[in-house]
Amino acid sequence: MAATMSLAFQRIQLANELAVKGGVLIVRNILAAHKDPLGLTSRELYKLALEQPPPPDFYNPHVRDKKPFPPQPPPATRGKAKKPMPEPPNKDHPVRSMAFLKHAILPYLVASREIQKTRVERILDKSTLFKINKRGKKVNLYPDVQGTSKEQVWVWKPVDPGTLAKPVPPKPAPEPFGAEVGVGEDIEHLSRKRQKARRAEIRRETHMMKVMEGIGRQKERSAAGAELRQQQALRKEAREQMEKRQMERAQEKLAQASGNQGPRSTSRTESQGRPKTSGIRRY
Q: pTM, whole model, 2 decimals?
């Protein structure tokens, strides 16, 4: 990229800046004078802007003492020669065209949170609604419909300052690791030799901080592991004691049951030991 821009490109940039500045001022005055709750469409803004005179400090940089600069020679290209760019319809006015209003002036006001685009319901005469077809001719949108109807249209309205969200303050930047030993400090005022020595010192101190931090983390992990093992041992001991008590209670219940039903159980075992003769036929 060239270090300096050409004079023609500088004039183009200056013309755009002056046109945006003057167009923004004109649109602000229009919106301040027309406080319509239904807002204004882009076409209405364009018509009203052309009725306003240009600001006093507006001028066309492409004109020198009311004489235009000589046109730039077309670039050498192979094949069919390119057609020159058409001039805007209102080159001596800040609002040079409808496209310049839509793509340069209105986005500037939206970015500065002065206007917003909303949809409203309007009563429109359908016989006056046109569109541009592929051949560039106006065609009525509703050729067979007469009368008025309510339609939803996009309009521009001023923004109420009370409805704007307050800007969130940026979060402070986190302190870099090793800031206490000199990380992030300005050492440009030192000589090259001292800068080199200072950087080496900061690296050593930062390395030692990382080592000590790692040792501290290892100690914390070791202490946490020892505490976990101690808790596991206590839980295991409590579980063993509970199982032992349950076993003792079960044995006590079994001993009581065997003491209360001692003789009956003996006769039962004796009767169980005899062979059953019921149901056996002897010959």
A: 0.53
